[in-house]
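Postdoc handover notes: sequence design on the structure in folder B. Input tokens:
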């Protein structure tokens, strides 16, 4: 059974009948099409006739006759029979060149509410995007969060103990289709094929001169080091040593941009805690799904907090926070989470298993005079809060049993 993704729906529902184009974006196989189906079902349940729902998936062979905006416009126009409102759903719209002109035309000509999905973050940028300035609202969809994964497994009668499942989620992430497989070799094969598909359809297809194998090797290396300080030169040196082939730092940055555009990674900028402002530099990157991060990692060291950081970072984005790495005078705080001009600080640890570890994690805040709430998140079940710094269990946080306070 499909999961009703209520956290996204409650954001989108207020716009069902608003005269803005609803743009649903995100990495391939994150569940955009299923979410669109849920929206269609809700609209019909609200009394809209099925004949007033126009749904076209531009990756479906049934619509292979649509090659340009004229074909698509003709198909949509042929289905509109009266002056009542129509709800138009266009899946993977970026495949149609100049689609912005089509959307602008539909808005001007028909009484309609338009929903589109896409797997390219730049699809609403460039000259044509000026046609739609102020006419769109965007929602980014991630693969299943930890809570959604637990809920999905319960819905489908798959045994799941959250405190045990966290390691499985760290390793294999939350792409919905991966839960169709029980064996790790099958999950890995699915993720590897998915990643190759993303490269072929969303990256190589648009950059025919790019060497696929070089891009895949380097991109997987970038993801396997997600959360660590980024250095294009170090990556170039790694590739030169491993593959005996040279690659320039300019190429590395070009690859990084393409990973961004395909929603494979997100960047985490620095925040100057002393100066209370964002810095221009952007030197940390996190994988949109830790399953992709695992593809280039032979073994998982669960005490490697970069995996946990990645999951916390994604969860914060899903919850609507703007997230930074906190820069102090002599070090860093893992995250500064900001929402509605209020913030908190977060340190992430695996287990606070020794006095030394506790001192290190809580001591990260020693020199910070900012009075905003301070948290240490770990997998420990015992509450170790002290000196005004709150300790939260990671599983409880991911299940929304506890929440962050901001000031």
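Designed sequence:
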């Amino acid at each position: 059974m499909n999961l009703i993704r209520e956290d996204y729906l409650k954001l989108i529902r207020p716009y069902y009948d608003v005269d803005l184009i609803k743009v649903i974006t995100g990495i391939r196989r994150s569940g955009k099409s299923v979410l669109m189906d849920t929206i269609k079902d809700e609209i019909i349940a609200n009394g809209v006739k099925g004949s007033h729902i126009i749904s076209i998936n531009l990756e479906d062979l049934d619509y292979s006759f649509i090659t340009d905006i004229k074909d698509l416009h003709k198909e949509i126009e042929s289905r509109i029979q009266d002056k009542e409102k129509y709800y138009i759903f266009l899946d993977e719209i970026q495949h149609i060149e100049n689609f912005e002109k089509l959307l602008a035309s539909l808005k001007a000509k028909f009484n309609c509410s338009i929903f589109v999905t896409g797997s390219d973050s730049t699809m609403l940028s460039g000259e044509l995007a000026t046609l739609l300035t102020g006419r769109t609202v965007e929602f980014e969809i991630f693969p299943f969060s930890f809570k959604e994964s637990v809920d999905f497994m319960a819905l489908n009668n798959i045994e799941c103990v959250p405190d045990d499942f966290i390691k499985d989620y760290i390793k294999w992430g939350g792409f919905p289709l991966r839960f169709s497989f029980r064996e790790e070799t099958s999950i890995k094969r699915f993720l590897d094929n998915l990643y190759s598909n993303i490269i072929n359809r969303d990256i190589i297809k648009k950059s025919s001169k790019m060497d696929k194998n070089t891009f895949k090797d380097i991109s997987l290396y970038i993801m396997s080091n997600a959360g660590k300080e980024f250095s294009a030169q170090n990556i170039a040196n790694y590739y030169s040593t491993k593959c005996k082939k040279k690659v320039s730092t300019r190429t590395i940055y070009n690859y990084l941009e393409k990973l961004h555009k395909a929603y494979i990674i997100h960047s985490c900028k620095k925040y100057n805690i002393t100066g209370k402002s964002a810095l221009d530099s952007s030197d940390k990157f996190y994988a949109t799904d830790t399953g992709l991060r695992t593809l280039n990692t032979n073994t998982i060291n669960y005490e490697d907090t970069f995996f946990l950081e990645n999951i916390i970072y994604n969860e914060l984005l899903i919850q609507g926070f703007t997230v930074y790495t906190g820069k102090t005078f002599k070090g860093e705080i893992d995250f500064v989470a900001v929402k509605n001009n209020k913030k908190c600080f977060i340190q992430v640890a695996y287990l606070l298993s020794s006095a030394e570890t506790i001192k290190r994690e809580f001591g990260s805040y020693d020199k910070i005079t900012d009075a905003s709430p301070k948290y240490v998140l770990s997998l420990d079940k015992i509450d170790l809060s002290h000196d005004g710094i709150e300790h939260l269990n990671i599983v409880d946080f991911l299940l929304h049993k506890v929440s962050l306070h901001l000031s």
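Context for whoever picks this up: The longest strand covers residues 265-272. Don't rerun without checking with the PI first.
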